[in-house]
Amino acid sequence: MRKPIIAGNWKMHMTIESGKAFVKEVAASLGDTEVEVVLCVPFTLIQPLSTAAEGTPVKIAAQNMHYEDFGAFTGEVSADMLKEVGATYVVIGHSERRQYFNETDETVNLKLKKAHASGLKPIVCCGETLEEREAGTTESVVKRQVEAAFEGISPELAAETVVAYEPVWAIGTGRTATAAQAQEVIAYIRSLVEAKYGDEVSEEMRIQYGGSVKPDNVEEIMNEVDIDGALVGGASLKPDSFLSLVNF
Ligand code: PEP
């Protein structure tokens, strides 16, 4: 049984104060949840929110990291630095990073290796653009992204990696992939993992869907057999909305 994982991606939103209040409110309502609850927050919120989340089921993630340990990389933050301030997870290769910050399949792979080496749990994103979907190349795009991301990653570490399938056309657009569309691509990703690593790893790996997930569509999405969670932007910014997602 794969443990469901619901992750809120706050992008460049929230403050230390509003973030701490959010964690307090959500943690107070979670009880003994069976769901893994993650908040992917801006760098400056990682330390205060990790402290606020201590003793609760809420885990804090970074939204990006550099693949080197240290050096002349102005503006960047390393995996060990994120660990030091309390991050448990890190998002790698979000489509906004690929689109606006030159993230490539190669840097995604380097970051995935470094995250594992540092003991951060990676959430690796993949997904096609609207043009790619309309051109019928969804599978080949996702195949390229997934194969490149996992190049040189051992089966043990692959099994501990979370993959987020996020069609770019569904992110922040209000246009959700249907549950069936999401299931189809996620089953395909699982088949790629099986081809590379075998049954056991593909059965163990958690794969999320992301793209305009909201309280009113989360249940349908989570009911799909291969979908183990959601990576959620807009609907993760309010505690009551985020709680409805966690309580799908
Ligand atoms: C995201 O940030 O990864 C995302 C899926 O955003 P939204 O839920 O707003 O589409």
UniProtKB/TrEMBL annotation:
Write out the pathway annotation from the protein's UniProt entry: Carbohydrate degradation; glycolysis; D-glyceraldehyde 3-phosphate from glycerone phosphate: step 1/1; Carbohydrate biosynthesis; gluconeogenesis
Q: What Pfam families does the entry give?
A: TIM
- Superkingdom: Bacteria
UniProt-listed Enzyme Commission number(s): 5.3.1.1
* Compartments where located: Cytoplasm
Under the cellular component aspect of Gene Ontology, which terms does the record hold?
cytosol
Alphabetized, the UniProt keywords read:
Cytoplasm, Gluconeogenesis, Glycolysis, Isomerase
Catalyses: D-glyceraldehyde 3-phosphate = dihydroxyacetone phosphate
What family does the database annotate?
Answer: Belongs to the triosephosphate isomerase family.
The protein's name? Triosephosphate isomerase
Q: List the source organism.
A: Acidaminobacter hydrogenoformans DSM 2784
